[in-house]
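REQUEST FORM: STRUCTURE PREDICTION
Request ID: SP-0412
Submitted by: Lab K.M.
Chain count: 1
Length (residues): 313
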Amino acid sequence: MSAPSEVRTPAPAGPTGAPAAVSRHRRIPPGIWFVLPFMLSYAAFVIWPLTRGLWMSFHDTSLVRSGSAFVGLDNYTRLFADPLVWSSLWTTLVFTIGSTIPLVLIALVMALLVHSGARGQWFWRLAFFAPYLMPVATVALIWNWLFQNDVGLLNGLLGLVGMQPVGWTSDPSVALWSVVLLTVWWTVGFNFLLYLAALQAIPPDVLEAAATDGAGRWRTIRSIVIPLIAPTTGLVIVLQLLASLKLFDQAYILFVGDGGPEGSVTPVLQYVYDTGFVGYRLGYASAISYVFFLLILVIALAHAWLAGRRRSA
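STATUS: Completed
RESULT:
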């Protein structure tokens, strides 16, 4: 007599008729495994520091003292009465306006010159963009030599034309503009590439039609080219504003962290650094940084709102 055959019960079916195990497996999007490493890194290095910093801004956290007491809004009320906060913020705003305008205009002129068909375009593109590839420490050291009062190249050139030497890094009224000059030379290449890409995207038949109608070069640039690249100009302006507001590296290295003559080149981020890691007041430094973060956020949202209105119009 043969043994009875084994009776197998089928696995319970899922809602679509597939086995439940397969159905549960399919509920997990396969793409999650590709983005999970990034999400974990983002949470560890962005979300957690932001949350921790916000928590510290409401406490008297210090680097030299364990434990911290809750102080509420005391750090925020104190910073609004701190003259050093306002002076460093004013320095940052002056640098932002003073660097953004030339970085937009000079980049546009450079892109127009290269796009005009001048000979040796590869050389001009390399020459305009090469400084942007340098690390900030190298750029600061180069310009530190150029700014020297006695043996610097800039004062040497001024002496050749009979002008008095300028205290590029020692005169409080000039030191900040020295950082502006350094920054323009260093970063204008990035804006130049954005403008060059926008110019190359203009349809050639539009320019040919303008030439056929008798429009000269300047009229074509003013009435056709500049309006067509207006979205790129808006992008360049907002990117430059956000980058200039974060002034720290070049000023800190050029003046060896002392804020320049009479503190005239102390941006708000350097004041945050000095407060938190030199003065050991991490809670107060966090409060300043979050107020500054709100300022940057307002500028970014204002640009997004204006860009949306421009597109709808």
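NOTES: The mean pLDDT is 87.
Reviewed by: T.R.
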